[in-house]
Amino acid sequence: MENEMMRNKRNRGAVVIIDGRKILLIKRVKRHEQYFVFPGGGIETGETPEEAAIREAKEELGVDVELKDCISIIEFNGMQYYFHAKITAGRIGEGKAAEFQEPDRGIYEPVWILIEEFPLKDIRPQEMAGRIQSLLEQSLKEEGTLG
Predict the structure, then answer these.
(1) Which helix (H) or strand (E) holds 4?
(2) Cross-strand pairs, 29
(3) Higher pLDDT, 103 or 32
(4) Could you give phi then psi for residue 41, rounded to 5 degrees?
(5) 119 preceded by cis ω (within 30°)?
(6) H-helix or E-strand containing 142?
(7) Average pLDDT of the segment spanning 41-45
(8) Are the C-beta atoms of residues 106 and 29 closer than 8 Å to each other?
(9) pTM
(10) Contacts of 55 (CB under 8 A, 6+ apart)
(11) Of the candidates 44, 84, 38, which has an alpha carbon nearest to the alpha carbon of residue 65?
(12) β-sheet bridge partners, residue 111
């Protein structure tokens, strides 16, 4: 049982791409369940969390990114590293990740979600969604564009 749990834990690097009041997420539809995740994936052997986040953005979204800062590190089925990122090249929707070609893995679709929609969506992990919403709201208040 413990070995099975360890196999399911995998460290992950992910990107948080913000455009005004929107955040780019991956809409997942799997076994009649719909939820959203931050673009990213497992850290491969010899790879840093930063390198994984950059690689996964290219694979899943079809874009090159520049990482700004590490927004958060949380434990959720392994250690997950979330980096604020800026798109520098490419077009969203042109990702060619291997999992996209496997029908039994479900649907992966990049989508923009408004900050106001966060509480209405099943965003995983929920802890990260809450942190991002708080950060965005604070940033928008400081800019004078919220509330």
Answers:
(1) helix 2-8
(2) 34, 107
(3) 32
(4) -175, -175
(5) no
(6) helix 126-143
(7) 95
(8) yes
(9) 0.85
(10) 13, 44, 47
(11) 84
(12) 25
Under 8 Å between Cβ of 71 and 16: yes
DSSP letter (8 states) at residue 47: -
- Tokens standing for residue 102: 């496997």
- Token pair of 7 as six digits: 């196999």
Q: Are 52 and 12 in contact (CB under 8 A)?
A: yes
**Positions of E strands within the chain:** 12-19, 22-30, 33-37, 40-42, 63-75, 79-90, 107-114, 123-124
Q: 128: helix, coil or strand?
A: helix
Residue type, 22: K
| 146, burial (CB in 10 Å: exposed 0-12, middle 13-18, buried 19+) | middle
114/117 Cα distance (integer angstroms)? 5
Q: pLDDT of 62-100, one tens digit each? A: 999 999 999 999 998 899 999 999 999 999 988 877 766
pLDDT of residue 16: 95
Task: State the pLDDT confidence band at 8, using cuts at 50, 70 and 90.
Answer: low
Alpha-carbon span 57 to 78, nearest angstrom: 19
Q: What is the Cα–Cα distance from 137 to 147, expressed in whole angstroms?
A: 9
Task: Identify any residues that bridge with 40 across adjacent strands, giving them in sequence order.
Answer: 14
